[in-house]
């Protein structure tokens, strides 16, 4: 039971990333009808926003410290980060330590701009084109973005540590009544899960309780009628594309300490996230979230040694097996609307 509970936590952690990326994919498909294969690249850009913030905060200048000598008796050259000189050693060190959460403030405007430029500059020209054309052009865009990141940051993963306050682990088992020191879980992974719940809740609240969100939901159901009412639905859908980019970017920012960012991390999540969207139901936001967490947990449970000893390699294919079963028995997905993908 302890092992199952721990693997379930691991699955919720991984499912959080699946759910956030799939949520953005579903927002784009539901509003614009576009199959966006560049969405994984937006997740990657968000992760590299965390890397960029870390590098910016660690920019330093060299000073001569007369109080310290090298082995030849010469004064030592000391590198001092600018933030420490501006805010003092203690405050400056604290700011550097919290570089990943602070990267959220960099990622939001960056992802808004990237999403807006992507939609206005490229995606809008493919609204009425076949899905195959959309997949080809967005997949090509994803490769271009990957190569740009590779050229500027290199091909190797870049460690991006979490704040020191979250560097340890939490004894979740003791808090839930299990034996102490049995279910130990990394604090940052738990923080990522909580963060994903907040973002998902914020997106659903925005769509459900704001006038803007209600118009968008109406436009998703009947775009032409909303347009006849004098509402510029295209502008609102462009904003939703940018919001979907922000969701993917924030998912990448907070995932950076869990999986060191590299230029192909977006592709690693993209295919799985599309499977999540299909299993949840094309265009269904609740379905994307449900399927994200469900498949994350199943993948984690399938990675247990007890399971792999019986079914070797099952952890590598479990998500695709579930997708096949769902598509054969319920083509519209778990929470998809009747008639979708059932022709």
From TrEMBL:
GO MF, one annotated term: transmembrane transporter activity
Major location (coarse): membrane
Any one of the GO CC terms: plasma membrane
Transmembrane helix keyword on record: yes
GO process terms (BP): amino acid transport
Topological category with respect to the lipid bilayer: Multi-pass membrane protein
InterPro entries reported in the protein's UniProt record: ABC_transp_permease, BCAA_transport_permease
Highest rank taxon of the organism: Bacteria
Transmembrane spans: 15-35, 42-64, 95-118, 190-216, 237-258, 270-298, 310-328
Keywords in alphabetical order: Amino-acid transport, Cell membrane, Membrane, Transmembrane, Transmembrane helix, Transport
Compartments where located: Cell membrane
Protein family membership: Belongs to the binding-protein-dependent transport system permease family. LivHM subfamily.
Name of the protein: Branched-chain amino acid ABC transporter permease
Organism, as annotated: Rhodalgimonas zhirmunskyi
